[in-house]
Amino acid sequence: MKPAPFQYHAPKTVDEAVTVLAEVAPVDGRVLAGGQSLVPTMAFRLARPAHLVDINGIVELERIAISDGRLAIGACVRHAAFYSPVADGPLGRLLSSVVRHIAHHPIRTRGTFCGSLVHADPASEWCLVAATLGAEMVAQSRHGRRVIAAADFFAGIMTTELREDELLVEVRLPLLPPDTRFGFYEFSRRAGDFAIAMALATYRLEDGRMVEPRLGIGGAEPKPRRITQAERMLEGQKPGPEVFAAAASAAAQAVEAMEDSNYSADYRRDLVKTVTQRALDQADGGTGSPE
Questions:
Q1: What is the DSSP letter of 79?
Q2: Is residue 194 within 8 Å of residue 213, measured between CB atoms?
Q3: Which of 95, 117, 190, 233 minimizes the number of CB atoms within 10 Å of its CB?
Q4: Arithmetic mean of pLDDT, 96-123
């Protein structure tokens, strides 16, 4: 099928883009970046935007930079940009590890980091990364910019706190301390499929005990989030199977698991326990250990 008729806009600056967006958003104007979710739904006429604002010609949105202890990722940075570490230390390696779980190579070459966050699919790996690490979302409209914490940004399934006239111009991820350990594990039916449940864990070791643990869960609930109950069980403990198993059980009990025609809530909760323990195992001695 072909998309329904629409008016195409190709701004060359962010200011031009948000000016156009302010005019067309009230009459169903949409932003086009990678288009890996929007274009297929338009082709099947599930989405029928009257206006399409294509931001791919805005050079400044292709920027990746480090400033003030944060990695800034522009709205047009593709998934494939993270195949090689874009930052020294654990954050660069974490992003390079996670990106390989996103769909398939052709999609990674076109889809964008920020577009994934705006789409807010519960099974999005980047949404989980943003929620777990405490990303900052920089939104701009013609009225100015505002910064939204990741914990406040995701509102539910494919729903965010971004206003209709705002453009997500940049996401800022905090750089991780050099001794940070991390583990990421997701479960899907086949490679490249959407995750049914996934977990991201980070922590540091001081005198052999875990400090500053972060544990995020995605895919199992309407939005990704940190599981503070499990984090408290990890804080100050020596890493090991028993501690990890207890934290994994706490995570499984904490989630309000989704249910659909394919997977029951109990099944997803059980998966949360598995992916959590495996992410923690990775952080303890696998690919996520400091070099």
A1: G
A2: no
A3: 190
A4: 96
SS3 state at 45: coil
Contacts of 51 (CB under 8 A, 6+ apart): 6, 7, 8, 9, 20, 24, 27, 28, 29, 30
Q: Judge if pTM exceeds 0.85.
A: yes
Both tokens of residue 32?
Answer: 């086009």
For the segment 241-248, the average pLDDT, to the nearest whole number, is 98
| Count of helices and strands (H, E) across the chain | 10, 14
Is residue 277 within 8 Å of 244, Cβ to Cβ? yes
Task: Report pLDDT for 287.
Answer: 57
Residue type, 206: E
Instruction: Say what percent of the chain tops pLDDT 90.
Output: 94
Query: Using one digit for the tens of pLDDT, what is the confidence trace for 64-94?
Result: 999 999 999 999 999 999 999 999 999 999 9
What is the rounded CA–CA span in Å between residue 281 and residue 275?
10
For the stretch 140-150, pLDDT in tens is 999 999 999 99
Dist. CA 281–CA 14, nearest whole Å = 43
Cβ atoms of residues 101 and 200 within 8 Å = no
- Write out pLDDT tens, residues 157-209: 999 999 999 999 999 999 999 999 999 999 998 888 889 999 999 999 999 99
Alpha-helical (H) ranges within 11-154 are 14-24, 38-43, 90-99, 105-110, 113-119, 125-133, 150-153
Asked whether the beta carbons of 247 and 230 are under 8 A apart, the reply is yes
The amino acid occupying position 168 is L
Report residue 123 as tokens.
């099974």
